[in-house]
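Hi all, long-time lurker, first post. I run a small reading group and we've been trying to get comfortable going from sequence to structure in the token notation. Rather than ask abstract questions, I figured I'd post a concrete chain and ask someone more experienced to write out its structure so we can walk through it together at our next meeting. Sequence below, copied exactly:
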Amino acid sequence: MDLDDVWRSTDSERAGLADLVDDLSPAEWETPSLCAGWRVRDVAAHLTQAHMGVWDATVAAVRARGSFDRMIRDSALRIGPLPRQEVSRRLRAMVGSRRRAPFLSPVEPLLDVLVHGQDIAVPLGRERPVPPVPAAVAARRAWEMGFPFRARTRLAGLQLRATDGDLVLGEGAPVEGTTGDLLLLVTGRTATVHRLSGAGVRRLPAAEGRREGSRRTT
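-- Answer (accepted) --
Happy to help. Here is the structure in token form:
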């Protein structure tokens, strides 16, 4: 994918997620997400913060005393009470924008919306297909980043192979699944481990599903 394709995919995911938010019931809006300690509403609101500027990021970092995870968690929980309609409006308003938070590549917004979309949909039992090509771009970025996912360390000795695309990450015992499920694994989610196959699966954590909330996994 070239840069324009990345942004087009991000736009499509944001618009689709806004539609999903509009369709959620009040009970679904309050349901725990795959991010530990975050409700569906917190994850959705967090995605509207992708345009956070340098000043806002600095203030948030000071409030969190320099802790990255705490900064992301507190910022998301602070705006979590936003009405559902306002969250979907803000998501749609971001479609077409190429702004991103300081120090991030253009792939991170795509990574965020793909993974957090599943953080919302999976615990609700909602079907939200993950497009394989954008998911492969996001998974490779997460694999390369190190912090905060540390995927190469966590998944050392395993080779991840997509069954619906050409994504291959790592070396070792095979773990096979859709690109979307491998993206969740790379970013620390275990909710779909039961859908994976291969000799390496027995070395993975049980399918508990939760992950400590953070910006990138978004």
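A couple of things your group might point at:
The chain has ten helices and five strands.
Residues 53-62, 212-218 have pLDDT under 50 and may be disordered.
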